[in-house]
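Hey, I was hoping to borrow your eyes for a little while. I've been staring at a protein lately and its backbone has me curious. You're getting the sequence in one-letter code plus the fold written as C-alpha cells. Would you mind checking whether the C-alpha cells look sensible for this chain? Here's the protein in full, and shout if anything looks odd to you:
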Amino acid sequence: MSAITLLDGGMGQELLARTGATPTGLWSTQVMIDHPDAVRGVHDDYFAAGADIATTNTYAIHRDRLVKAGCEDQFEALHQQAVDIAVAARDAYGAGQVAGSLGPLGWSYKAEFAPPSEEAAPLYAEIVALHDPHVDLFILETMCGVDQARGGLMGCTRTDKPVWLALSVDDDDGTRLRSGEPLADVLSLLDEFDASAVLLNCSRPEAISAGLSVLATGDRPFGAYANGFTSISDSFKEAGATVDRLETRRDLGPSEYANFADAWMQTGATIIGGCCEVGPSHIAEIAKRTGKTPQ
C-alpha cells in the first residue's frame, strides 16, 4: 500500500458541537468570529490525532455570503485570520501542511447556484492570492458540477502550489455528481488544469465507495473524505439554509468510518480524511490503523 496522506476531519460541525453556537448562513465563519480560540483547538486536536494537513476555516468565506450578512468589509481580514490560525497550529505541532480551503460559490450541493466558470474564476483567484503566501496547497471543496469545478480550477491557475479538486457525489449514486452529471465527465479537467489530486468529499461514505471506482481509472492520486449525515436533504439545498436541517448518522463511529477508509485504501486511495460530523476520534482511528503515529 502506498503512503497515506491523512487529512483532518470536519471543521464546521465540530465547532458547533464545541461551542454550542446557533447555526447561521455563515456557518463556521460566524463561529470563528465569535470563538477564534475554538478554531485553533480543532486544528490542534486533528494534528494530535495524526492528521498531516490542517484545512483552513475558509470554506464559507465568500463575498456573496458576507454581503447577505452585512460584513463584506471583513472579507480579507477573515481569510487572513483563518489562515493565520491554521499556520500557527501547524507551526506549534512542528510538522504537517496547511491546505487553503476553497468552498463552493453560491451554496453547497447545488451547482446551479454557482456563477458560470468565467465569473467564478476571478472570485476564486482573489482568495488564492490572499492564501498563496501562507499555505502549502489548495483544496477546491464540494464541487458538485463540471462547470463549477472548472471555475474553481480556472481560479487557481496563477499559483504554483498543488491544487486538489474535491467533488461531491450523489448520495444514492456515487458515480454521478450532485448535478446529475457523470463523475467521469470531470476527469478531463484534471489534465487540462494539471490538478495534483482528485478526491470525493461531503457525501455518504457508501456513495464515495462507488465513486472511487471512477477516480481509480485516472492517473492522478485520489482519495476521499465523507460526511456523517444521513443524507443532504432537499431543504438544506436552499440558499441560506442552516445545518440544523440535517440529521447526523448514529452508525458511523470511529471504527465504522475507519472500515470505509480501509476499503478506500484498498482501491488505491492515498489521501484520506473526514468531512462534516467526522471528528478527531475518527481521524485517530484511521491513524492507528495506518501506523501514522502523531509527532
Notes: DSSP finds eleven helices and eight strands in the chain.
